[in-house]
Amino acid sequence: MLNLFAKIIRTGVVTDPAPNLDDAVIKELGIEVRRVLNQRFSGSLAIRHVDAGSCNGCELEIHALNNPYYDVERFGVHFVASPRHADCLLVTGPVSRHMEEALRRVYEACPEPKLVIAAGDCACHGGEFGISYASCGAVENVIPVDVKIKGCPPSPEQLLQGLLVLFQRMKITLALQKNS
Amino acid sequence: MKTINPLQGFFDACTESGLAIAPVDTSILAPASVLTIQPVLWRDLALAAKNTGMRWCGFWAQEITAGMEAFSCLELGGSYLIIRCQFGTDEALPSLAPIYPAADRPERHAHDLLGIQFEDQPDNRRWTRHQAWDKNQYPLRANFQWIPPGKPVSGDHDYPFILGHGPGVIEIPVGPIHAGVIEPGHFRFQAIGEIVLNLEEHLAYTHKGIEKLAVGRDAGGVARLAGRVSGDSTVSHAWAACQAMERASGLDVPARALWLRAILAERERIANHLGDVGAICNDVGFSFGFYQLSRLREQCLRENEALFGHRLLMDCVIPGGTAVDITDQSIIKIKDSVKLLSTEVAGLITILEDSESLEDRLMGTGRLTPESAANLGAVGYVGKASGQNFDVRRNAAYAPYDRLEVKVPTYRAGDVAARARIRADEIQISSQLIGDLLDSLPPGPYHRKWTSPQSACEGIGFIEGWRGEIITYVRFSDNGCIARFFPRDPSWLIWPALELLLQDNIVPDFPVCNKSVNGSYSGQDL
User: Fold this and answer.
1) Boundary of a domain, candidates B69, B87, B119
2) Does a structural domain hold residue B440?
3) How many domains does chain B fold into?
């Protein structure tokens, strides 16, 4: 047990940005995410991830968002187990035809505003798999998409960046709705 | 010195049983020996193979001018034997599932995609096909006509699961979408209280038609596709595909490229094992292990990005070599970081082994007996944790591993703890191997220009991926494009093990059991 605590103390908080540009960029992005979230979601955003047929590459990078370097929860972003608890769907993969109905049903189960992020090249435009007897291709061929995060797979930084774009777009949409 | 062919026992058994077999061809699908037979011998030869202790590793088929051709791949003592036979499209092939239970799903897959009928198949339910195409259509046949459906494809609601009866038996459907960030698949539990009576998997939700997509692609396109068969095994799948294509075309890959591929593959193994051991800790609520190991994994991935341009090393392995080289400075850097990683992991594992709560949750959980593992032909860490002492890098060594000593850890406990321990051991072994590979890294070019074969040819690749043995078959048509690509992910052999090892465990232990096996959904769904 002593060893365990010693290791924790020796490891320290790796989340603090190391003095290189990459980490600084991540931190800046994260703060920006929190600012927008405070306005729209009272400091939290619940994400339901749906793998609609990916190769698992995107999942590995989404997992990385939870590691101590990115620690996405500190920005109020957290992953939930049910679409009914979610503000946002994060969809990966081309939509396989075998997952088509499941994805539609998740979308229906998700409460408004039903934000959808398509993460990864496959989710954005079909990627390596495209449209075939087995694949519907891009996520937007099945459900409406708000933001596309490219990359094969997108890096954790790109995923955070995508979240930011989502909120900016939401603000614009809300402003337009108010004006009309 | 005369070397003894490990397959000799099998040939002797065939002779004794009066099975007339032609001489084997050792060149067409080298390093495997190929036995071409008549369909009538299909079942008898499998029986003889089983009786001589051969491990069954894979089944695939293809449409040819004369009808169908089926391949069955077996292994004994590091020697691979491929039995192939041609038969008419309307003829049925005897099922091997009654002899080798792991043949069940690959045969059903071949039925769903190619329309091959099997005699005496113990389970004639569909496997890969859900509702996306009609049961009389076969996507891998040349005459398959696909018309985009005008309406959404419905879910596979009527799949006939095995039912449990009796007082107190409850049924728990889970999936295809699971609670975590994980691939989709359906699990059907029958339980009494918390105890699992039976688990049945219903997969193929991520079926993307990879085998069909490969047809007509060039070598580079197939390598890219192979790198996305299972995203966590991108190096090893791309390597297996490239190895098969290079063997088919007779391309000699520069030595440096082989060493680089091995370095990439060992880095992939380390990163995945770090992630998995961490996730196993997380699944039993031991967050210390999860955060420490995911920290180390992230360090590896960042180094991958810095040195090779991609965190997961996608598209680094290309036909003819690698897309990346390393500098002398990088060599020093990798050596240092690998040494540091090895020390850190050793320290962490000591802490994890000290934890009584972890021991309590992992030891004895999800036990796969060595007998069951042998019966299923389990490979990789699942097999090694259950006494199956096999690793392609050592038993059927390919370059550069034929120049290196590859240690293979094995345990007999077969529980979650043993599977975690194999991974911890393999992290250390891979770290050592990376050091050895860097020390012996040959100079010279790291790729050679790919030239498409001028006539029809075929090849096979055998690679030890981080999950276990990968077997990839390719056939080129005479225009230099791919006519058939079949990547046999180790997940085909370890998914059935999960069903078995979960029996009599409690339902809440499913996540940790599943993580310890970590079959690839995408790799088996194709």
Assistant:
1) B119
2) yes
3) 2
Residue B376, domain CATH: 1.10.645.10
Q: How far apart are CA A61 and CA A123, in angstroms?
A: 14
Q: Give yes or no for B184 touching A (CB within 8 A).
A: yes
For residues B322 and B261, what is the distance between their CA atoms, to the nearest angstrom?
7
Shared domain for B291 and B437, answered yes or no, is yes
How much is the ipTM here? Answer: 0.92
In a domain, B154, yes or no: no
Taking an 8 Å cut-off on Cβ atoms, the answer to whether B152 and A61 are in contact is no
Q: In terms of domains, do B113 and B224 share one? A: no
* Global confidence as pTM: 0.92
Task: Kindly report, residue by residue over A1-50, the tens digit of the pLDDT.
Answer: 788 888 888 888 777 443 343 555 555 555 556 566 666 666 678 999 99
Mutation for A interface: B208, B229, B296, B348, most A CBs within 10 A: B208
B344-351 contacts, C-beta under 8 A, 24 or more apart? B344/B296, B345/B274, B345/B296, B345/B424, B345/B427, B345/B428, B345/B431, B346/B428, B347/A3, B347/A7, B348/A7, B348/B289, B348/B292, B348/B293, B348/B296, B349/B424, B350/A3, B351/A3, B351/A4, B351/A7, B351/B288
Does B520 reach chain A within 8 Å, measured CB to CB?
yes
Q: How far apart are CA A27 and CA A43, in angstroms?
A: 17
Please tell me whether residues B105 and B222 are part of one structural domain: no
B435 in any annotated domain: yes
Peptide bond into B176 cis (omega under 30): yes
Residue A111 at interface with chain B, using a CB cutoff of 8 Å: no
CA distances, B420 to each of A91, B410, B415 (Å): 30, 12, 9
The sign of the CA dihedral B305, B307, B312, B317 is positive
Number of neighbouring beta carbons within 10 Å of residue B164: 17
Domain boundary among B119, B140, B164: B119
- pLDDT tens-place string over residues B299-324: 999 999 999 999 999 999 999 999 99
Identify any residues that bridge with B191 across adjacent strands, giving them in sequence order.
Answer: B170, B196
Domain that holds residue B76: 8-119
Q: Does A175 touch chain B (CB under 8 A)?
A: no
Side-chain half-sphere CA neighbours of A116 within 13 A: 25
Give the confidence band of B164 by pLDDT, cuts at 50, 70, 90: confident
Report the DSSP beta bridge partners of residue B195: B192, B506
B156 within domain boundaries = no
Instruction: Tell me which chain B residues have a C-beta less than 8 angstroms from the C-beta of A153.
Output: 231, 312
Do A98 and B156 count as a contact with CB atoms less than 8 A apart? yes
Q: Select the residue from B128, B140, B177 to test the A interface by mutation, using most A Cβ atoms within 10 A.
A: B177
Structural domains of chain A, with CATH: 20-179 (3.40.50.12280)
Sequential DSSP letters for B109-142: HHHHHH--EEET-S--S-SS--SSS-TT--TTST
**CATH assignment of the domain containing B108:** 3.30.460.80
